[in-house]
Amino acid sequence: MVKESRVDVLIIGAGPSGLMCANALAGAGVDFRIIDNRPIGVAAGQADGIQPRTIEVLQSYGLADSLLKDGAQMYLCAFYNPGPDGGIERTGRAPDVTAPTARYPFKITIDQGSIESMFIESLKSQGLSVDRPMAPSSLEISQDPEELLDPSSYPVKVVLDHIGPSDTTLEQEIVYAKFVLGADGAHSWVRKTLGFTMDGEQTDYIWGVIDFVPDTDFPDIRNRAAIHSNNGSCMIIPREGDKVRFYLQMADKDVMDPETGRIDKRKVTSENLINTARKTFHPYVVNQPKEVDWCSIYIIGQRVASKFSKHERVFIAGDACHTHSPKAGQGMNASMNDTHNLAWKLAQVLRGRADISLLKTYELERQKYAQDLIDFDREFSALFSGKPRTSENQEGVTHEQFLSAFMAFGGFSSGIGVHYMPSVIVDTTHQSCAPTIIIGQRMLPQIFVRAADARPIDIQDVLPADTRFKILLFVGLLTPEQLANVRRLAEELQLPTSFLQKYGYPAEGNAQSMFDIIPITAGQKDDVNFLDLPLMFRSHWSKVLIDDTDVTGRLGGGAYKRFGIDEKAITMVIVRPDGYVGMIAPSTALESLDKYFGSFLIGKT
């Protein structure tokens, strides 16, 4: 008898993308299962760079501490080009993170196995685990339009195979799911089963990658370094402990089989890769390493899936829907941010609080991002893989060209410049109320002082990824006249017609409440009595903030001015559960907020 079961969300693939989704759904109290065809997770190698925005996202789930402790932090990037004597010489250095609003002005490098372990430990602490080794063998989606639009139905049928030793009988299981996520990598079975194509191209650039403990006199071995030499290019990535990673541009003759014209994997040895490095690094010495962790080879492919979802019931994420070169350090970051975008939407739809049409914004937002990523990667890879300009090669890439591209791409590569376009969850109507808080981008980091105890707090730390919409209520300077306005607003928001009453679901069981209000006053900490604010605006003593410096005078202050917010007005900034700004509105335009939330949420009955 084949076992049958039901689940709200089935996640196929337990790499960073699938595990991010599982962890977010677990926090939201959603019923899910996550399966993987590997008996154990990744041991070494693979993706390794965590960008500044991803650190912020992991911090919003309470997961960044171990990364900050265990990973290597990259602050500088050094640039090397051919010198007059034929060897390489340093032509400059720049901050590795150029985005001015980065809360963490560095990138972290740590192996993919550590990232997966961090998520697996988090799931374990909640009594959850990955089912492995298991693989899907068939997937069917109901064709009934009514069933597809009913979020309580189970329109997806998946047959799972339990992978055992070859001499055992195949054990199968049928799972009926409301939603399925295919986070099963670049060769995604889910994507192929849905018939989605990967659109884009393969380049001619062949790269080797090696993780090892180096023995060298190269002075920038603990910084990120971009090397253009007459023998090809190299990217150095410092790793945790004493390890480094080299990405090395390989010549066809070093890795191709002359008879078949294909890559000969037997030629990809650590000795070959180190020999290539020696030629590239001249006049610096690279000795034979005592310890090699991992090495591999790849040809850069830059592709995006034709669709990211089928009927808003089966989704794909991560490498299943976009592939690009590793040197821009985006893979694992883009993958985790895909499911960070999707998870809160699934949670609200499954709770019956949001319309199923909200799920259309996943493809809308992440497919455009993936396409932008490929365009960025294509340009960056071409510059990086291109020959350097020398007296013999006037067509080559100059240091200035590469450096200006490096700076220009900084916002994008750090993840900080991600900008979601207007949609039902991104409404730019009242952008002028806070000109520098860009609607569609993540909420900027900014230190405020807590009114109750003068403790400095970064605003991002009161925006956890807990499925709630945060209402940052900039109440201005609390003069008697302004306090009267604030009290009037509280009265208006208590009317049954206001969005706060219509959509303000309380916490129920495992589900969090819909809204969290965080008032932020202008003025000085000595002059503000937070108890003057109406009770509905201070659900907890820790939730009232002041735009002032801390007791040392070094941290915080100046936010109203920085954001362009009028201290005499009351301004509401709506931050989505994923930390992105969805809307801004003055207190005089409550009908705009009613319309905004009414376009995707379902009113309380």
Description of the molecule:
By secondary structure, the protein is of the alpha+beta class. Helix 1 (16-27) runs parallel beside helix 9 (331-350) and helix 9 (331-350) packs antiparallel against helix 10 (360-385). It is built from 16 helices and 25 strands. The protein is globular. It has an eight-stranded mixed beta sheet with strand order 6-5-12-13-14-11-15-18, sandwiched between helices. Strands 1, 2, 8, 9, 10, 16 and 17 form a seven-stranded mixed beta sheet that branches. It has a seven-stranded mixed beta sheet with strand order 20-19-23-22-21-24-25, with helices on one face.
Outline the fold blueprint.
Layout: E1 3-12, H1 16-27, E2 32-35, E3 49-50, H2 52-60, H3 64-70, E4 72-74, E5 76-82, E6 88-95, E7 107-109, H4 112-124, E8 134-141, H5 145-149, E9 156-162, E10 171-182, H6 189-194, E11 198-212, E12 224-229, E13 232-238, E14 244-249, H7 252-255, H8 270-281, E15 292-305, E16 309-310, E17 314-316, E18 322-323, H9 331-350, H10 360-385, H11 399-408, H12 410-413, E19 447-450, E20 456-458, E21 469-476, H13 480-493, H14 499-502, E22 515-521, E23 545-546, H15 559-563, E24 571-575, E25 581-586, H16 590-598
Parallel strand pairs: 1-2, 1-10, 5-12, 10-17, 21-22, 22-23
Antiparallel strand pairs: 3-7, 4-7, 5-6, 8-9, 9-10, 11-14, 11-15, 12-13, 13-14, 15-18, 16-17, 19-20, 19-23, 21-24, 24-25
Helix pairs in contact: 1-4, 1-9, 9-10
